[in-house]
Structures are given as C-alpha cells and as structure tokens.
Amino acid sequence: MGLPGVRVRQFQLLSAMPAWCRTILPLVPGVAILIAVVSMLDRGQVLDRLGQADPLVFALAVLSVQPQIVLSALRWRFTSRRLGQQLPARRAIGEYYLASLLNQVLPGGVAGDAVRVVRAAREGEGDRWTGRAGQAVVLDRLSGQLVLFTAAGIGLLAAPFVFGVTPPGGAGLLVLLAAVAGLVVVGWVVLRLLGDRAARFRRAFGPLLAEVFVRRRAWAIQGALSLAVVLSYLATFALAASAVGAPLGLAGTLLLVPLVLLSMLLPVSVGGWGLREAAAAAILPIAGITAGGAFAASVIYGIASLVGALPGLLLLARHAIGGRRRAAA
C-alpha cells in the first residue's frame, strides 16, 4: 500500500541520503507514534490480548493474506499487458511476494515496488521499457488505492448513521450534499485555472489511462481484482481482531477498517506500523471494542501480513543460489 507519486518522490529523497539516515529516519515517526499510543492505553490489557491470541484464527489470518498477494499480482500482470509488457503469471506472483515482503521490512515502504520495476524492465530493452515497467507498477497501485479510497469514503459517510456517532437527519444530509457540491465546484475551478496544462495532460496520459482502466472492459477487470484485494485486507483484519477477542462485526469491518488501513498510505513509517495502531485505537472503538483490543488487533494484523509474505524469501534464496552458481561459472 502507498500513494504512488508520494512514494516515488520519497524513494528519490531516500536514495540521496547517507546509508544510516536511510535506515534510521523512516523508523522515527512510526516508533514515536507507537510509543505515544501505548503510553495512553492499558498496557496490561494489550499484552493479555496479544498473549492469549487464538493461534488457529491467527493462522486463518495468515492464509487470508495469500489472496491479497496473488490477486494483486494478477492485477499487475493485467496492467503490464495493457501497456505492451508480457509478464507470466507465475513470475508476477513470485515478484509480488518479494515486493510485499520488502515493502514491510525495509524503511521507506518503496523498496519492493522499486525492485518490481527493475526486475520487470529486464524483460525488455532500453529506457522505454523501463518507463513502461514503472508505469505498470504505479498504475497497479493506483487501481487498488482507488477502491480503498472509495471504501473509506463510504465508511466515513455511513459510519455516523450506522453506529450513531452523530444523530442522522436532514441537516446531516444537507451538509453531505453541500460537501459534494463544493468538491465538484472546486474541481471545475481547478480545471479552468489549469487551462492548457489540463488539456496537455489529457493528450499525454489520456490514451494510457484509457487503455489500462477503460477500454475493452478494463474497468470491470481492474475493479473486480482491486475489490477482491481490498475485501481480503478487511478479512485479514477481521480475523486478527477475532484472534485477540475483539470481534468487529460485519459493519465494523466494512465501514471502519478501510479508514484504519488508509492511514498506512502515509509514507512516514515502515510497513504502516505506528500509524495503523494509532488509527485503530482511535477509530475501532466506535464498533464497540476497547482501544486496547483495537491496538492488539492491529498488531496481529501487521504480524499476519508479514508472515503471509514470507514466501518472498524463497525467491530471494533462489536468486542468491543462482548468483553463486553464475559467479562460480
């Protein structure tokens, strides 16, 4: 998970830093937030929930990570093929496992995506092919984020009515309609101000975006794959919450968990740690669980996601063995 443009700029900035800065700096915000949240919770309750986590339910959470990675890899393969790059399904899945693992354990959260670009570009020749590989990775991530943003938007609008956080009524509906109308007006004004720049953008990137997201039923394939991926995220979090004895229920999972996962898109932590736990402790009690239970659920979710991506180590081991054989030859 990550905002494509921000992630690319973050990767460029990190590459220009000394090695120790690249290692330490991305850890600071997430660790600081994690410490701050823990200091405000009942640490005994959190530790009890983590210590008593159901191993069977945790195993199911790890298993639910596999559809996330496999379906994401197939979406990436589809996007690459729309851009003229042939990527075998088996290789796409292996590369996505590796990328998912690297994004969770390395500072910056962009290492896995960078590796995907470099390794996919080797299938072709020249800078043009490298550009196509980069476009495929960025648009693949964009596809998933559009669905996640949509789910989070629905949750943001529906949660007050479902959980009774604020009293529903005509006034609330009028505020919602006014906000939507305001966004439409702001968008129109921005397009008018951009003028020729907006037209040049449409001419340069319009055909590319249409090929990836619109033409030949691409919208249906992209939407179905991204929706399935997001639903598997929600299933993993729901299982993690159940594992620590803090079940969220269907409404809590569908409406609130997307808001929690949205926090992971901010590129100021490693693997979303810290931000995700803070968001969970702040948001999920709306569903009737304690802040400590929400924090513990988020921790189990993070661990399950990491364990679920460990097959990426097999790809690393295979490359290491292949490299030694080539060196020996």
Describe this entry's structure for a reader.
The structure is a single chain. The chain has 329 residues and is mainly α. It has one domain. The longest helix has 38 residues. It is globular. The protein starts with a helix and ends with a helix. About 2% of the residues have low confidence.
Shape: globular
N/C terminus separation = 40 Å
Uncertain stretches: 167-173
Based on helices, strands and strand pairing, what is the structural class? mainly alpha
The quaternary organization reads as single chain
Largest sheet: none
H and E order: HHHHHHHHHHHHHHHH
Mean pLDDT: 79
Continuous helix count: 16
In total, the number of domains comes to 1
Helix % is over 70%
Whole-number radius of gyration? 21 Å
Beta strand count: 0
Strand content: under 5%
